[in-house]
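#lab-general

N.A. 3:47 PM
ok so I finally got the sequence cleaned up, no stray characters, all 247 residues accounted for. can someone with queue access submit it? mine expired

B.Y. 3:52 PM
send it over

N.A. 3:53 PM
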Amino acid sequence: MTILIALPVIAAILGYVIFQSVAESRPVPERRDATVVFDRISGEQVVAGRGSERFRTASVVKLFIALDAVTRKASKADEAQLHRMLAKSDDAVANTLWTRNGGPAIVTRTVATAGLENTTPPADAGRWGDTLSTADDVAAVYRRILKLPKAKRDVILAPLRQASRIAADGFDQHFGIPSAFGDRPWAVKQGWAAGRGSVDAHTTGLVGEGDRYIVVILSGSAEGTGLDAATAAVTSAARSLAPRLGK
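B.Y. 4:20 PM
back already:
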């Protein structure tokens, strides 16, 4: 009787060990991405691919910093800093504004202001780029920016329309939307980061006459992937959208 009882238990244990071994041997996905496109004319989301999947925002969180600053009545000096932070993706300016305006509280306020559903501040309060968000939530931030009074809206959108090819850190930030939609007006905030388990490359912004489309492509690749390869994949994804979107 003892043997009959023990055999199923042993089999279960062996089955669990085999399952764990197989699971641990499965390769880590090389790349994951999410794409959301919102058509402001039709009022419809015309592309919805993994919009609720969370990614590390990297420099895309600078949109949150900017929206929070203008909502809180940014001074002229602040506006000049915001312009550089957004157009050049300047991390030093982001550090200053992040610290001055409450760090993680910026994300918490933006969640409330823009009605975000799956965005959380960084676990390490000083690492603003580790904020977690989704393509749906980033698109919602753009919708909130577009509803601001013109003067405040322009504080954010003017530098996005003037995003320099070379960022403050020397990186070419004209991947994704600027490369794919060079024949149309655009305004962008890009994001890129490597380390801590992932290589992230994001292209987000407005495309078309009258800022018709909100386009958000977020991606995360396995650690060790080159940033050039990660951004090239994002550019390819953006180019695949171009024939589907009107001008």
